[in-house]
Structures are given as structure tokens and as C-alpha cells.
């Protein structure tokens, strides 16, 4: 299976599976993938629709699959030329369930190792948290007129989702509401806290020492330096700086300390300074985007004004650039500021895909596709992703909105791009 696209920690897009010719009675290969299939088949009302859906899945009728918390989304090709939009919903877990899951995962070192090896231990799935769905837990929705539960298109998507779970159980955890990075960080902190408590409960070992006369001897041979400590998994939060009359601005100190820690961690881990090749403007946008929140609030107005002035820009230009950076980092900023002429291929295929989704004919210009009403726009980045933009109709005031996507139709999710709109 090709590597999935990561549009964010809580959104993963997987390319379509190729057709398969196996007649194996079990569609999935792992026990947890087969548990997903069992939940589908035991909750279905019509075995014939299931059989048709299984055939659609085997024949490769399911296009790219997007997984977000509580939702699996894909287009499925049926007997008609236009594919159907299919969603399968699954309830996300609450904070109490996640706390029990993390306790169970951190209780045995083998659990974390198994997850990193893309395995789901039975004991972890049976820790009292409903990770795997049961009959009736899968809630399918399809744009086709068939009201079966599920219809054959939704069944096809469910079968292909089982193959995703086979390859990576973190897909199941994402469906239940938590991303892989967030879970691994939480497990790392929990394991470290348990190890620290265990170390405190043990008797301290005697410290080695050297007699003063030996340490000061002129011919003493010094031992070799110890090996350097491993890089921490992530930089720590800076301390809280108090405000004092005539003293440094605590907000500015926090910004500088956080940025320095992040750059130092990246340099220690990779040997590269992620900021060294940025221009003054790009670095100003990066610093402003690192501040939590959005817009020119009371706490960020001074920062925006200072950074914009240093880069000879306005705070409004900086706010728009920050929105682009938060949408796609340095590539998102390039999409905002640098139109380009894409080669034939992905750009040319986008307009038929939009028409197939009942959207009007978008107007092309360089790497831009603009809705005829002029209120929604797609921009193709050099990374192959489609970046959604919005503007007031009749105005050329484009702002980055939403999440970039490999699929132009998927990039418009949540924007006002209906056929009539």
C-alpha cells in the first residue's frame, strides 16, 4: 500500500487500493481487521448488498480514502458514470476512555513496541475501552438513492477500510479520536512519570568519588568524556516570566525562548537549522504563526505590528500570510504569494473531477481554479496539494481557508462551493 498523505495530525488520506483477485473467505488479514469486517457483516440487513459491496471493493471501485476522527470518507464508483460520495461514521471515545487506554498501553512495554510495529495486541484491545466497533456501531451514509443499511457502496468502503486497519492500527485510533503523534507523546510522558516514581521509591545508589589528592595530582589521567545524552522527544515549555516595571516584556521573552528551544531541538535532532534558509519575511511569518490563536487580538497586536514593520509589510498582510503558513507551512506561503504554471496532468484533471461532483466550471489561471461566482478558489501547490481559498464575491481578497487535499473536491469540504452557491 502506498504511503498515506498527512494533511495534519487528525487527517490522513490513503490512495485507492488496486483490485484484488483473491477468493479468500476472509477479506482482512489481521484479527482486528476481521473484527471490523464482523461488525459490518453482523450489523447489515441485506447479505446481497454486502456481497455486491465486497465485489466492488475487490474490483477497486473505491477511490482515495480520507480518515478523520469519527469519519471515513471516499468516492465509490458504481454502475453509473458519476461516483457516489460515501461516509462511514464511528463514535469517538471520551477523555475517560482514552485515560484508561493510555494506562493499559503504558502498563506493559510490549504494548508500545507492538503499536510501533503496526500490531494491535489482544490485551490492549480488551482493556475495557471499546476500540473495535460492534454490530450496529458503523453508521454509513451514501449519496446514492439506495436506502439499504448499508448500501453496496458503503459496504465497499467498509471492506477497504478493513485493509487500512490491517496495515496500520493507528487508523482505528484516529477514527476513535486521537492521532498517532498525540498518543505516542502521551505514552512517552506517562512512561517517564512512572519510571520517575519507581526511581524515587528505590534506595539511592552510592555516588562514586575521587580523593582530592588523586584529583589534583599533576600526572593524573582523565577518563574519557561520557557519551552525549540522546535528544529529547520534543522541546520543553519555557518557564513563566514575571512582568516587572522597566523589565523585559514577558510575552517577548516567551516568544524568544520557545523559538530558541524549537530551533535548538531541530538542530540537535537533524543537524539542520530549519530557519537558516528563510528570508526575513518568511521568518517573520513563521514567528507570528507560532503564537497560539488567530487574528490581531489584544495580546498579539504588538507582535504583529513589530514583525510587519521589520519586514516592511502591513499587519494585514502579515495576518493573511500567517493564515497561509498555518494552512501549509512554507509551501502554503508560497502558494499565497507565488503563482506558477503547472505542467499538464494533475491540474488538467481537476476540472472534470469538479464537474463530476456537481460543481460549476471553475475558471483556470496559472495554478488557480476559481468558482464562476468568484467566492471560492483552489490553488495547486508545487507539493501536489490543492489549497482552498475564499473571498467575498466580486472582490479579489483571497484568504486561505480549510485544509489542503490531494483531491480538489475534498479540499472544498466545508467551503461554500455548492452548485448554486
Which helices and strands occur, and which strands form pairs?
Layout: E1 5-8, E2 11-14, H1 31-43, H2 47-58, E3 62-68, E4 71-76, E5 84-89, H3 95-107, H4 109-116, H5 122-125, E6 139-142, H6 152-167, H7 170-175, H8 180-201, H9 212-215, H10 250-270, H11 280-289, H12 301-310, H13 315-337, H14 346-356, E7 363-365, E8 368-370, E9 376-380, E10 386-390, E11 399-400, H15 408-411
Antiparallel strand pairs: 1-2, 2-3, 3-4, 4-5, 5-6, 7-8, 8-9, 9-10, 10-11
Helix pairs in contact: 1-6, 2-6, 3-4, 3-8, 11-12, 11-13, 12-13
Defining key terms:
421 residues; alpha+beta; 3 domains; 6-stranded antiparallel β-sheet; 42% helix
Structure, explained:
A hairpin with an 8-residue loop joins β10 (386-390) and β11. It is built from 15 helices and eleven strands. It folds into three domains: 5-186, no CATH class; 250-337, no CATH class; 346-411, no CATH class. The protein is an alpha+beta fold and 421 residues long. The two termini are 37 Å apart. The relative contact order is 0.09. The strands form two sheets. It has a six-stranded antiparallel sheet with strand order 1-2-3-4-5-6. A five-stranded antiparallel sheet has the order 7-8-9-10-11. The model has no long low-confidence stretch (mean pLDDT 85).
